[in-house]
Design goal:
Blueprint: H1 2-41, H2 45-56, E1 65-69, H3 77-89, E2 94-98, H4 103-106, H5 108-118, E3 124-127, E4 143-149, H6 151-167, H7 175-186, E5 193-197, E6 215-219, H8 227-238
Parallel strand pairs: 1-2, 1-5, 2-4, 3-4, 5-6
Helix pairs in contact: 3-5
Length: 246
Amino acid sequence: MWSACLFRALFFLAHSIYTVFEYIHGAVDSVINALVAVCHEVLSPTEKNKQLQRELEKVNKTPVHLTVLLGHEEPSLKDLANLVLWCLATRISFISFYDYKGTLKKKEEEFRYEVDKKKSKADHVIWHSSLHSTYKNGFIGKKIHVKVLTEEDSKNSVASLTREISLGKDREFGIESVSHSLRKQFEFPDPDLGLVCGKTFSLYSYPPWQVRVTEFFTVKSVRSITFSSFVEDLVRYSNCDQRLGK
């Protein structure tokens, strides 16, 4: 009896200490990130460009497609817009945001506005999941493709393929043809790098056929990603040896 009570008391104490420590650690991280953002804002455009070039010198390989899994947190449009701009700066051609709850999808117009007001006029952002997708021929400058995904997109792609299989009497379906059809519906190439936001690692029903060779890193929150930490993740990715199933 006494041992059980003692165990519960020790467990409660340990849990309380951990909770307080986690809260303090999160608060300190938020303050540091805020200070870094403020310091960056006071830099002149020339100083910002020099800082950017110094950071990018650390990266020797960038992903073609970066995907961001938002997890349980509510989307921060400002921070997500920063990721789009940083991908433009590092020449990443595709970025997708997976929000299984569908909140970002509902705010996509606001998200687009947040990106447009921050990006350079010379940059071109192609929105694949927007009704107002735009393409420019003869475009000169940096270009990036952006897509917002939800859990429904994953389910709908499977349902669509199932209907295609059931109606295609003259066509034989194998593993390769099914995989090709799913990728075609996805539009983007398979993601090379994925950032999973949250305390625990979970794919939140992300289309599994797209992430067979994706390198995943976890981040506490999309709000905690700074340009320096973003570059650090790119450096980690560039040092990975992706064998592509070999």
